[in-house]
Amino acid sequence: MTATEQRADGDRARGPEPFAAPKGIPEYLPPASAGFVHVRDTLAAAAARAGYGHIELPIFEETGLYARGVGESTDVVAKEMYSFADRGERSVTLRPEGTAGVVRSVIEHNLDRQGLPVKLRYAGPFFRYERPQAGRYRQLQQVGVEAIGIDDPALDAEVIAIADEGFKALGLTGYRLEITSLGDAECRPQYRARLQEFLAGLDLDGPTRERAAINPLRVLDDKRPEVRAAMADAPLLMDHLSSGAAEHHAAVLEHLDDLGVAYTANPRMVRGLDYYTKTTFEFVHDGLGSQSGIGGGGRYDGLMATLGGPELTGVGFGIGVDRTLMACEAEGVQPWAVARADVFGVPLGDAAKRRLVVIAAALRSRGVRVDVSYGGRGLKGAMKSADRSGARYAIVLGDRDIAGGTAGLKDLVSGEQRDVGLDAVVDEVVAALGS
Ligand code: HAM
Questions:
Q1: What is the pTM of this model?
Q2: pLDDT value at position 365?
Q3: 130 lines ligand 1 (CB under 6 A)
């Protein structure tokens, strides 16, 4: 421990209690954060390749947007929103999901007038006051896409294929796509009445009955064995689709077949958000325990109108970056590099430091990642830092080397060190890294 570190340690012992991050929020610290960034960027890149432009959304919106857009009966709105009054006494909410915000923005800025579909992608944190556990966080990270304004089954398939391609690009194999149709404005109300009639004949407990009154479809998703048994003969929407919704669904599956995207039917799928119509899907990973949904989405043909916009359809997905990273860990795939530097500068003396910081700047301008040992530490401590940085090479420079016009270039993998001319060191390092 250096004198500075000792002092910091002593101060901490006497000082106030240190703060901790809020509960249920994962932090991604180096070197593991390299995985987080890689997963997020790989998923977003798959969307960019299909022409989805980046949208940077507000982190909070008017509370009413989510109440109306996501649905008052959903857990997300009823129990999980971070809502508060701002200093102007307006109720605002930290965004629990991205679709409502994207649709609000499309309406507000008339993006639909610039050609359809409007294709947007986003990435960032969302907030839900859930009970934290592995894979379920209060600040969760998503990469999402939305395609608004064209009701074409091929577009549903495109959205699904983008997610699939993102997972594949990460090297994941242990996931599956579950898909169903939640019908349209024609068949959904009739089905709802039919299901409510069926539920009325069951001996359900009070809370379940209440849930059924608000949204009977939720009971289909109940995990309790006794409810599952009672629901075994429940009517399924897939058997009561309107001809339009059935045709749409068949066409989506055909496109997925053409694209070689495998899927399984899950006619009991219920999503936690109320805006879905027709195509609805989830990507499930088996290596994650109970929080197995790594992404989900679907069509939301009524949402634009519900939020005061034109009668335009939409389809999209949200992929959980936290859970996708967990899936990579579960499968042992790690396609990202954890090294944060390619080269580490080790100056031994003040003159050497002045020279090395200039060499470092020159290397950075050539695109090389360079870190330098600061604080006048000795060779041993500096070499330890060099190893920790993950660098491939160290440039070791003593004051005496400067007089001789050379620097030591050490290969941190083989341990070999050779002298190179000081004036040529930048070119030598660039060449060595390129080979
Ligand atoms: P969602 O299913 O609520 O959909 O969330 C999408 C994904 O976010 C989930 O599949 C999961 O991977 C991740 N996720 C959700 N909650 C948590 C949590 N508490 N902790 C960790 N990960 C979580 C939506 O949000 C829709 N907006 C998706 C969409 C876009 N539908 C149409 N367009």
A1: 0.94
A2: 98
A3: yes
Whether the predicted pLDDT of 356 surpasses 90: yes
How many C-beta atoms surround the C-beta of residue 74 within 10 A?
A: 23
CATH 3.60.20.10 fits 33-187+241-331, yes or no: no
Domain extent listing, the chain: 33-187+241-331, 343-434
CB contact at 8 A, 65 and 101: yes
Closest Cα to atom 18 of ligand 1 = 136
Residue 166 has pLDDT above 60, yes or no: yes
**pLDDT tens string 296-333:** 999 999 999 999 999 999 999 999 999 999 999 999 99
Q: Which fold has domain 343-434?
A: Rossmann fold (3.40.50)
Distance 142 CA to ligand 1 centre (A): 7
- 377 Rama class: left (phi>0) / alpha (psi -120 to 50) / beta: beta
Q: In whole angstroms, what is the distance from residue 123 CA to residue 30 CA? A: 20
Atom 28, ligand 1: which residue's CA is nearest? Answer: 318
- 258-306: per-residue pLDDT in tens? 999 999 999 999 899 999 999 999 999 999 999 999 999 999 999 999 9
Distance in angstroms (rounded) separating the CA atoms of residues 435 and 430:
9
CA 288 to chain centre: 16
Q: Which atom of ligand 1 is nearest to the CA of 136?
A: 20
Alpha carbon distance 180, 269 (integer Å): 7
Angle (nearest 5°) at CA 426 between 425 and 429: 80
Report whether pLDDT(8) > 70.
no
Please give the sequence-ordered ranges of beta strands (E in DSSP) within 311-405, or none if there are none: 314-320, 343-348, 370-372, 393-398
Q: If 0-12 CB within 10 Å is exposed, 13-18 middle and 19+ buried, where does residue 399 land?
A: middle
- Measured in Å, residue 178 CA sits from the centre of ligand 1 at 15
pLDDT of residue 1: 42
- Choose among 133, 171, 130, 135: nearest CA to 288: 135
Model confidence at 5, pLDDT cuts 50, 70, 90, reads: very low
Nearest Cα to 237, choosing from 214, 221, 251, 253?
221
167 CB near ligand 1 (under 6 Å): no
Mean pLDDT, residues 46-70:
98
Q: Whose CA is nearest to atom 26 of ligand 1?
A: 318
